[in-house]
Amino acid sequence: MGGLLCKKEKTRRDWEDVLNDDIWSASRLPVELNYAIYLSYEDMHPYLKQCFLHFSLKPKKTVLSVNEVVSMWIGEGLIHGDSCSLEDEGKRYYNELILRNLIEVDTNYPGQLIGNMHDVVRSFALVVARDEALVAHSGDATENKIRSHSFLRLSIEAKGLESDGFEWRYLTEQALLRTLILTGNFKMQPGSSLITFSSLRTLYIEHANCAALVESMCQLKHLRYLSLRSCTDISRLPENIHEIKFLQHITLDGCEGIVKLPDNIVKLRELRYLDIDDTHVNTIPRGFGALTNLRVLCGFPAYMDGEWCSLEELGPLSQIKKLNLVGLQNVSATSYIAEARIGTKASLTTLKLICGSRPGDYGLVKGGISEEDEQRIEKVFDELCPLPCIEFLLIRRYFGGRLPKWMMCAATVPFENLRTLWMVDCLAAPNSLMDYADSHIWVT
User: Could you tell me if 442 and 423 are in contact, meaning their C-beta atoms sit under 8 angstroms apart?
Assistant: First the structure.
């Protein structure tokens, strides 16, 4: 109710309109519907209603950042506006749901990065969407529901070992699916595929053995959102991935078996989000800079191949809002960093800079760093100078003897928008961070 009233004018009449609403005396509402939540739901714009219902599909224990949630909404066509500002518009929707107390902020994470839904609110949403969506755990009751009704959206959590998991064949009867969210193990047979899901826009799979599905992914001509998280049996994406020409989002976070991206990924000109964090991808295809539509890029490896450095491919990516660079200890000269043009990216608000502590050492920062290596990494980080629009900055395993110059000169080049500064396993002692007094600072 507080979330609803704060969106109203602060007048007696507007508040009395809520108090006297007919919904309080309605007798036709199902008993599962909370009247107060229903009032807030009815007060929302139709676009926001759809985003609210879609958020209820998120498995309770799954951690999805606001960027991933908004990317799902964009892929589903729930965000309306100019193509250049879809992420910003989606975040406004997300923040309004927080303001209305329909999404709760997880205080274990900085800012409003992670949100969850209270069980009462979630139950309400699932009742409202019951004809089109199903959220369930594996079991006979779930299998019966799937076999007896056609859904547009499914979110299923399979428990136990693969041998007693959910039967994949039951899902293939859902030919109208637009969203499929699966967590846990599913029992697959030889020949299991995605070919029957011709209308699928969103495919999210977590902690499942789904290598059998890789080749058939290219049959999903309408797919916008592909997330494979911690799927340890996957070693590659299909080489002809460019045939999914509308694909906007790819997450491979935690798929440790993946060591290489397909060369044809550079042809996905609609791609807005690529996350290869916690994979073993250490090279990227040449021509990557053609993906100028990218807004989020996580786990991008700094890789040297003769006179060519992968960081050169970042230069044309002017619309990047979130960038995570790994392996910066591999950069041999500041000229390669300069070609990344970090200091010209006016939309960049989140930047993560990660080293392997020193060449050939991917553990924690240790002693014994040579003076040459120390000076080289200092020059590399000096060249990375982002614009003052940065809001979140993480530096991990940096083995320079001092902070980057652009951090020490914050008084003359103020980072007025910086909200979170996080330094992890760094040799350089942040002796004075007083210029960042308005930020949340973590040093671990």
Answer: yes
Q: φ and ψ at 206, to 5 degrees?
A: -135, 140
**240 membership: H or E segment, kind and range:** none
| CATH number, domain 132-279 | 3.80.10.10
374-388 residue pLDDT tens:
899 999 999 998 988
What number of other Cβ atoms are within 10 A of residue 81's Cβ?
Answer: 12
- 3-state secondary structure at position 438: coil
Check for a shared fold between 132-279 and 282-444.
yes
Confidence at residue 412, expressed as pLDDT on a 0 to 100 scale: 54
Provide the token pair at 177: 């699916």
Q: What residues does each domain of the chain span? A: 2-123, 132-279, 282-444
On whether the CB atoms of residues 429 and 408 are closer than 8 A, the answer is no
Q: Are strands 350-354 and 392-396 parallel, antiparallel or unpaired?
A: parallel
Angle between helices 66-75 and 86-99 (to 10 degrees): 120
State the Cα–Cα distance between residues 200 and 218, nearest whole angstrom: 12
Q: Is 82 exposed, middle or buried (0-12, 13-18, 19+ CB in 10 A)?
A: exposed
Domain 282-444: state its class: alpha beta
Q: What is the pTM of this model?
A: 0.86
Contact 421, 439 (CB under 8 A): yes
Query: Which pLDDT tens digit goes with each residue over 324-365?
Result: 999 999 888 888 889 999 999 999 999 999 998 544 444 444
Q: According to the model, what pLDDT value does residue 160 have? A: 59
Model pLDDT for residues 111-168, shown as the tens digit of each residue: 778 999 999 999 999 999 988 999 988 765 777 788 778 899 999 988 755 545 677 8
Rounded-to-integer distance, Cα 255 and Cα 253, Å: 6
- Using DSSP's 3-state secondary structure scheme, residue 215 falls into helix
